[in-house]
């Protein structure tokens, strides 16, 4: 008896009851979850919602433009963009430990909202300076379980939108997707009229490309990974594999180098790992049997077009025992 309509009706009522006539903000990550959570809250409280997009410099190619143009045009939500690239990269400098990265990113997200962002948002909201009391998060059921929020489950990773929150948090959370799985979230997004480019988008983690660089995160490494990721997504889409593949992280092994040859010259570059997975809900996953020709095309293009990469490898591990992301 599950239907998108009934979940929307139930959540809208619940959000109205929780929020009353107060102001709400929602961080848009560019991903499906935050987009649908924001659309639900917009449905419930309309103009009381202001969306905030933190550009932390850990995004995929063109992602900022997609949020600022596609999403805003299709929903009509009010959006404030906070440029926080220097702050995030500064906070991440010298850090290679996965959990430390996640905690820093979670903390900086909230700081970005509470700091410079709060004024901008209040002004955008209504110019009266009334404080914003609620923060929307697109937390899904699997995020809750894997961050140890479920019934007695061990903490596997600190998802930025659950375990990474600072203790002095001054917002009350609104989490309308907390009981839902990704396919349900997509159904709700479609029902709410979001465009297919957003609803069908591959999941992308809140901590972004930072957790796909094994080693320290630097601007140069981000730039390398971003180019390899864009090529991979382009080729998988061109091969018609978007439905079969849940997501395909591209992981840069930034501290590893191997010897190669290009033209007459020796190269000493980095490997990237392709991690195509098929899944229903990201709780478990299998590696996708991507056709060899498609893999060959991706590998050729990456090694030809991204100078710093001279080797492409394929991750053939299911989840469990591997997780989808490498960090
Ligand atoms: P793992 O790596 O735990 O990933 O198998 C499961 C799914 O969650 C995504 N993921 C995240 N999503 N914040 C998010 O919103 C996070 O911190 C985060 N970490 C992982 C991952 O891309 C996969 O779809």
TrEMBL record:
EC number from the UniProt entry: 6.3.5.2
Domain GMPS ATP-PPase: 2-201
Keyword annotations of the record: ATP-binding, Glutamine amidotransferase, GMP biosynthesis, Ligase, Nucleotide-binding, Purine biosynthesis
Pathway where it operates: Purine metabolism; GMP biosynthesis; GMP from XMP (L-Gln route): step 1/1
Keyword check for Ligase: yes
UniProt-annotated binding residues for ATP: 29-35
Catalytic activity: XMP + L-glutamine + ATP + H2O = GMP + L-glutamate + AMP + diphosphate + 2 H(+)
Function: Catalyzes the synthesis of GMP from XMP.
Self-association state and partner proteins as the record states: Homodimer.
Name this polypeptide is given: GMP synthase [glutamine-hydrolyzing]
Organism listed in the record: Brevibacterium daeguense
Higher taxonomy: Bacteria, Bacillati, Actinomycetota, Actinomycetes, Micrococcales
Residue span relative to the full protein: 231 to 557 of 557
């Amino acid at each position: 008896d599950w239907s998108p309509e009934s979940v929307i009706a139930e959540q809208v009522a619940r959000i109205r009851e929780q929020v009353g006539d107060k102001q709400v903000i929602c961080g848009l990550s560019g991903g499906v979850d935050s987009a649908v959570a924001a659309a639900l809250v917009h449905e419930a409280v309309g103009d009381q919602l202001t969306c905030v997009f933190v550009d932390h410099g850990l995004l995929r190619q063109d992602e900022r433009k997609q949020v600022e143009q596609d999403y805003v045009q299709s929903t009509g939500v009010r959006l404030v963009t906070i440029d926080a690239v220097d702050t995030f990269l500064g906070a991440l400098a010298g850090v290679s430990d996965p959990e430390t990265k996640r905690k820093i990113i979670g903390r900086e997200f909230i700081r970005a909202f509470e700091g410079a962002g709060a004024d901008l948002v209040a002004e955008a909201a209504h110019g009266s300076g009334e404080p914003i009391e609620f923060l929307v998060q697109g937390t899904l059921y699997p995020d809750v379980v894997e961050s140890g929020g479920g019934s007695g489950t061990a903490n596997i990773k600190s998802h930025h939108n659950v375990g990474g929150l600072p203790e002095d948090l001054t917002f009350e959370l609104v989490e309308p997707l907390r009981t839902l799985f990704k396919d349900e979230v997509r159904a709700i997004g479609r029902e709410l009229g979001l465009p297919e480019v957003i609803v069908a988008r591959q999941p992308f983690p809140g901590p972004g490309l930072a957790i796909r660089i094994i080693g320290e995160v630097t601007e140069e490494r981000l730039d390398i990974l971003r180019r390899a990721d864009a090529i991979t997504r382009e080729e998988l889409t061109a091969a018609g594999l978007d439905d079969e593949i849940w997501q395909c992280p591209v992981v840069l092994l930034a501290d590893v180098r191997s010897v190669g040859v290009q033209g007459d010259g020796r190269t000493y570059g980095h490997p990237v790992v392709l991690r195509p997975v098929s899944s229903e809900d990201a709780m478990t996953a299998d590696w996708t049997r991507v056709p060899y020709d498609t893999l060959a095309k991706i590998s050729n293009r990456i090694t030809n077009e991204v100078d710093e990469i001279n080797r492409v490898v394929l991750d053939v591990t299911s989840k469990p025992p591997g997780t989808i992301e490498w960090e």
